[in-house]
Design goal:
alpha+beta; two-stranded antiparallel ribbon
Length: 253
């Protein structure tokens, strides 16, 4: 999978690889820069322009906690020809499918004491959120998370796209699609659907890539679409479309 760089040079390509711990500061900044004008992001982080460093540290702490203490999560990095991160996608495998078991085993190479490290990272994050951070609105964030909680309750095993961001200088060059297609290839191999909550910024790309909207959650005075992608060989296993063209999630059996 190759992609031209912003310079347009055919010799410059985008490569995908698993994230390393040293990538996380870059990924945090990419996520902020990619969503700086996103209506959802603006409501969650109303102080990001006045306190940009607080926004950055809050995001970095969140990414570090996921990287070290969530054994079924993976960050995939898109890097340019000199190895600099220019985009990323964060994936999480939900429930105990074979993929989740494999990722849990692989995660043991990341940290020897995930429980202890997870508690320390949570303590660090909580202190930052409640005692220092002036960029985020924690009450708004909690309300948003609560509103989203029921979106996937009728899904069993699935892959959840937690986040996707591309450096603004590299946007509209196919990097986001390349990252998304990495997840779709994995989902095909495992026979699993991909679920995500879409921001307004990424919605059109997801629809073009074959995702279907099956729910809209009202939160923060915004309509937040909930989307699902089914592998081609499993079309209709999770989604149903009625005569009026409305798509819904099939009930659990």
């Amino acid at each position: 999978m190759a992609e031209a760089s912003p310079s347009g040079s055919s010799q410059s390509i985008v490569r995908l690889r698993p994230a390393r711990a040293g990538d996380l500061p870059y990924l945090a900044q990419i996520h902020i820069d990619a969503h700086v004008e996103d209506p959802l992001h603006v409501q969650l982080m109303p102080g990001q322009f006045k306190h940009p460093y607080h926004a950055y540290v809050g995001k970095l702490l969140m990414f570090r906690k996921t990287y070290y203490s969530n054994p079924t999560a993976r960050y995939i990095v898109a890097e340019n020809e000199v190895g600099n991160p220019i985009g990323f996608a964060a994936w999480n495998v939900i429930n105990s499918c074979p993929l989740a078991v494999r990722w849990k085993d692989e995660h043991k190479q990341v940290t020897r004491f995930p429980g202890v490290q997870g508690r320390l990272l949570k303590l660090e994050g909580d202190y930052w959120q409640y005692c220092v951070d002036r960029a985020s609105d924690q009450a708004v964030y909690r309300d948003f998370i609560k509103a989203m909680e029921g979106n996937y309750k009728d899904l069993k095993e699935h892959i959840y796209c937690m986040a996707l961001g591309v450096d603004p200088k590299w946007q509209r060059k196919g990097v986001g699609k390349q990252l998304l297609r990495w997840g779709k290839d994995l989902a095909r191999q495992e026979g699993l659907p991909i679920a995500l909550t879409s921001s307004p910024v990424g919605y059109s790309m997801y629809i073009k890539e074959g995702f279907s909207e099956y729910m809209i959650t009202r939160s923060l005075n915004l309509d937040v679409p909930v989307l699902l992608w089914e592998p081609e060989e499993h079309k209709g296993d999770w989604l149903a479309t009625d005569e009026e063209g409305k798509t819904t999630l099939k009930p659990l059996l």
